[in-house]
Structure formats: C-alpha cells, structure tokens
DNA sequence: TATAAAAGTTAGACTAACCTAACAAATAAA
DNA sequence: TTTATTTGTTAGGTTAGTCTAACTTTTATA
C-alpha cells in the first residue's frame, strides 16, 4: 500500500518522464521543484521508494521508475484523468477547475470505483484537457498531435489538447470559445513576432500570440 | 482547515452523540474505541480539538462538540452520505460496499463538489442505508421510524433504515430481497425467543430472529 | 467509607514527511 | 586542469499522529 505522498512522487516522476521525452530520467532537484518540496526531502523519499523497488536510483545518480513503479504511477494518472472527466462531464465543472479536485480524488483506493467510474463515463479516451486516459491494463491511447505553431498558413485543424494547463490559459480559451474539437484555420503568420491570425469555427478572424500557438496541440 | 484525522474525530463525536440519545456527550475511552486508537491517543487529539474550539472538554471530563465542531461534523456526514448515494445509485455498488469508499471520499475538500454532487443526485434525502442526508445549511431531515421489533403482530410497515450496518446483516437483507421501502407484514411473534414470522412484499412467510427485528428500522 | 475497578492522563518513544544548514560530488567554465 | 557552479546528500530538528507503560482521578462496590 502506497501513502498519499509516495503516490505523488511516483506520479511526478511519470509526468517528468513524459516531459523529458528523450530521456525518461529525472534528477533530485527537478523532482523536488515539481513537487514543491526541498531537495533534501526528495532525497529521503527517493531512498524509500528505492527500498520498495519503485524506482532505480543511486547516490548522485538519475532516477527512473521501475516496472512496478510505472504501473502504479499510471494507475494514479488514470484515476486523475477519469475523475477530471467525471467532474467536467457530469458535474459541470469548467476545465480550469477540475485539476485541483482530481489531485485529491486520484488517491482514493478502490479498484472497483475506478472501473465503475470508467464504465459510467462510457470509457472515455481523453480527459477534458485532451490528455489520454490510461486503460485498466495500463495502455495509454496515443493521438498524433502537433503544436498549433507548427502549422502553415492556410491549413486547418482541430484542437486536440492543451499543452499549458494554467488557469489563465484555460480561461482565455474559454473566452475564445475554444475547446477540445474546435476547428481552427490559420489565416496568416506574422513574421515579425510569430503571432498569427486565425479563424475559430466560423467566427470573425482574430489574432493570437506565438505563446498562444505554442500552448495548444492540434490535429491536422 | 481540518486534517483528515481531526475530521474523523469530529465525525465520531457526532455519531456517538446520536447513539447516546439522552446525553450527547462522549468519554475518552468511548471515542478511542470507536476510532480504533488507544485512549492516550484520543486524549492528545482532544486537547488539540479543544485548542481549536471544536469541542468542550476538560481533564477527566466528558466531551461535547461546540457549535463550530458540530457544523464541521455535519458537513462531513453530509459528504459521506452523498457519496454513498452516488456509489449506490450511479456506480452500482451494493449497500454493503459503499461505506468503506465513502470513508475516504468524505474528506475531499471542495464546496463546489459537494453541492454539485447533491444536485446531480437530485437532492436525495436519505442514503442507501436509509440515513438522513444533512442539507447544505446543516439541517437533517427526520423520519419517524421504529424498530421492527416494536410492532404488534398483524401490523404492516415499510423498511425505513438499517440500524446495524454490518456487512453480514446487509448481505442477509439483500438475500431476503429487503431494501429501503420494502413492505413487511408481521404475522406472528414467538413469545419463547422473540423471533417473528413475517411476510416480505407478497412472498411466502418466513421467520427471522429477534436480533434481526432489533436491527431494522421501519415506518408504520 | 475504604477499597477495588474503570476511566482518563502523562511521559517518553516511534514513524512519516517535512525543514535548514553544512557538506560532498559532479559538471561546467575559465 | 584548476576553479566555480550546480546538483545532490547528510545531519539534526520539527510536527502530526500513533503507541506502551506508568500514573492519577473518578466511580462503583463491598
Ligand atoms: Mn490534471
Ligand atoms: Mn487533465
Ligand atoms: Mn457509511
Ligand atoms: Mn450510510
């Protein structure tokens, strides 16, 4: 049985391994920063996780999830994203509100609960942010997606996921009436600052920043 | 902000105050036994709760919830029973399975979640065990109910709630196809051992023990 | 009312998860 | 290849929640 805190360390490690695409390893300071604790604290926990065979790690070395560790981490991520979907779909939470509550709900221990919840939600593949929901067997659906900033002028796409999940960005998207699945056409890219003129569904054209285009994943 | 553990102490105190109908006070050992900790542990926590003005208590004295303490305890009970209802109604949990998971879910912090959940469930008044669900304002619906054992032969009633919520009893009820609302007619009471012959809905008569009749609340 | 039993408290210790301050190792820069 | 910087560890301490063992107060019983 894993403690609340141990679960958070494992999930952090998994998230970092997605982030550092090339090498799925993480460092102590990186972990600590991600979790909002001091490096000394992370070191202690890492020793404990190693003892439990959830990570491979040695003094001054990089940290990597073991198979068991990864399995556990994926299970937590699965719960997180299922709960987010529940809150969004069934309880009318907006997509910038779901994360905080899911951070708590992901630690509820009950195999039956997760599976029944998934069934209740009709086996969703993606959460409200467009992130894939791991299956019960640990598989993670993959969707080919690109950053909006990678498309050429003239091309069209559909919003697939948000890269930046900050409240500010999510609320901005909401204001623009952009959600997962929304159609976007790139009209023009301004060479000067990388900002672009886009058409959202059939609305009037508008301009968004390069930062914006770097924060949104789309499907061609 | 209350800790997980503090919340459990407050809820325990509220439950004990329902149990000891005459006097809503509790003793240290009683609390400890209820929570599955040692008396010494309870003493420590009681001091802390007193410090936070959640209970009135003094050395060797009885323990009583303050208004704030009671308000908090009711909020937790409300969450517990709403979650039980959710699990039972929406996720197909059986009524002996809901409690354990609700014990965890009741500690999720999110005012919006509770209220949205209540709305989603259509403002239920009673949980799967027939226990009243406190309203957002703290009011607790009351239903006039009697023990099955208090009825005279010949009378009819409807099952209102279970007094004993043990798995064994709940599963026995399930086997007898008795649930909240089920109609029961008392045919005969055996003077020898207090057992009684009853008719469940329109089924064949059957005999149940006095212990059984003392564990079931009904409505005349 | 004296004594035995029950109820409750205190002291001291442990573990998990955190911290700060001082140190050590690894890496990057000069 | 030294030196400086970054990265990570260790030592020692704190708090919440738990325990055991010894003690004290209250209550019940003879
Ligand atoms: Mn999230
Ligand atoms: Mn998400
Ligand atoms: Mn319950
Ligand atoms: Mn209940």
TrEMBL record, chains A, B:
The keyword Lipid biosynthesis does not apply. Pfam families: Fe_dep_repr_C, Fe_dep_repress, FeoA. Residues 1-66 form the HTH dtxR-type domain. In the presence of manganese, represses expression of mntH and mntS. Up-regulates expression of mntP. Belongs to the DtxR/MntR family. One of its GO terms (molecular function) is DNA binding. This is Transcriptional regulator MntR. Keywords: DNA-binding, Transcription, Transcription regulation. It comes from Pedobacter metabolipauper.
């Amino acid at each position: 049985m894993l403690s609340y805190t141990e679960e958070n360390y494992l999930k952090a490690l998994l998230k970092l391994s997605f982030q550092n695409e090339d090498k799925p390893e993480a460092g102590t300071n990186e972990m600590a920063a991600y979790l909002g604790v001091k490096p000394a604290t992370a070191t202690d926990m890492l020793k404990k996780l190693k003892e439990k065979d959830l990570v491979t790690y040695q003094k001054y070395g990089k940290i990597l999830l073991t198979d068991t560790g990864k399995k556990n981490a994926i299970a937590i991520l699965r719960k997180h994203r299922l709960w987010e979907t529940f809150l969004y779909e069934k309880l009318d939470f907006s997509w910038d509100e779901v994360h905080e509550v899911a951070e708590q709900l992901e630690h509820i221990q009950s195999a039956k609960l997760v599976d029944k919840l998934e069934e209740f939600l009709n086996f969703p593949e993606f959460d409200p942010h467009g992130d894939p929901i791991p299956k019960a067997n640990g598989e993670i659906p993959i969707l080919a997606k690109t950053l909006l900033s990678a498309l050429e002028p003239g091309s069209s796409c559909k919003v697939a996921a948000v890269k930046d999940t900050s409240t500010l960005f999510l609320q901005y998207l909401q204001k623009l009436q952009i959600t997962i699945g929304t159609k976007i056409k790139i009209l023009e890219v301004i060479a000067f600052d990388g900002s672009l003129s886009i058409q959202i569904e059939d609305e009037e054209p508008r301009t968004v920043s390069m930062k914006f285009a770097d924060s949104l994943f789309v499907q061609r």
